[in-house]
């Protein structure tokens, strides 16, 4: 089998059991462990199509992999060594950038950072920003409909995709890469593959929408006494900053404490640490120096209204980067607190304070001493509802309570008409929860899966 794959893809295109394939196996949270039959690395859409055709003829299950930064096991192989991992890392070319169309065509293996850099070279912006953008790939971010910090203004990845090139399970290539903003010629087929986590087809390239590069950017950190106050601040920012509001993030004091212990160089922005921190970024493509003054007026009103107790505005790009480093270091810094049970959920923005209060209360009753570390995207309702182990409890004892904690969190999410998977996806981790909570939706998804992948060869065991 390996010889046939090598004949198809060349020596550089195949890694077998005798090669070092550890980085294709180990996923960030270490929850899923498998070993594939081989790792296939096509370097063109044509090679990918021939590989998929070969795998179908041999009935070989395929697991597509981008930067392997996913957090729900969506790109991890199973344990029975029967699968082929298809890494798209060699499909990494920027095919073209067209400022007149405000678009860019990138192959699936391009990193998000490379795409943002290519756009920047033409005074444009690709407005999806993730902490993992140096490793995460375009194909992966589309397959998972990644969100990130700028969703409040620009939307998730889905909002940036103008066209797709996708290899179907029978080896045919669906290709619609025209940079059209309007196309009502039948079903919008590309939408099926965005967020499908590699279960319906393999994305090989995409046409992405670009925005003007900001000429002014201002970043601030705001101290707030409560989440309710943070929500009032968000309303004021939306009203008075309009479309310039690009990011509105929040974090609790506990998260900041973890980050300060984790980063030797980090400093709390405030002399008096508040219960909650809200990070704000505003941008404008218009030249001038009016944006900072406008934001300061809004924040001064927030201080007067006592929905903010202190404000720090970055006076340089270096200071802005330091503020963003605090926010983006929360995930790794949570290791300071021991075991962290993680939930990527969303609720309506208006429900955030009530949801957090109710879920936290129920968890405290079930697990005395539990430490909720809740942070995320205040502007779009996406909460990383993470739970750090009680200080008096052993790690294994806390891990044994994961199912009970999950039940409390997910029941509250559904009570507030939220989602159990805001931006990380379903993968393997949340598959059973999706099936039990939304049976009709899952039935429809299975019908699509059966239609496009009748033999269940594309990423089996994931999502549905």
Model description:
With 464 residues, this protein is an alpha+beta fold. It has 17 helices and 19 strands. Strands 12, 13, 14, 15, 16, 17, 18 and 19 form an eight-stranded antiparallel β-sheet that branches. A hairpin with a 4-residue loop joins strand 5 and strand 6 (103-107).
Layout of strands and helices, then pairs:
Layout: H1 2-9, E1 14-15, H2 22-25, E2 38-40, H3 45-58, E3 62-65, E4 84-87, E5 94-98, E6 103-107, H4 112-120, E7 124-125, H5 138-143, H6 151-154, E8 161-167, E9 173-176, H7 190-193, E10 202-209, E11 211-212, E12 216-224, H8 227-241, E13 245-252, H9 253-262, E14 276-284, H10 291-304, E15 310-313, H11 317-328, H12 330-333, E16 340-341, E17 344-346, H13 352-366, E18 371-377, E19 382-388, H14 395-399, H15 402-415, H16 431-437, H17 439-452
The residue-averaged pLDDT reads: 95
| H/I helix tally | 17
Cα-to-Cα separation, first versus last residue = 29 Å
Biggest sheet overview: 8 strands, antiparallel
Which word captures the global form? globular
User: From the alpha-carbon coordinates, what is the Rg to the nearest angstrom?
Assistant: 23 Å
Spans where pLDDT lies below 50 across 5 or more residues: none
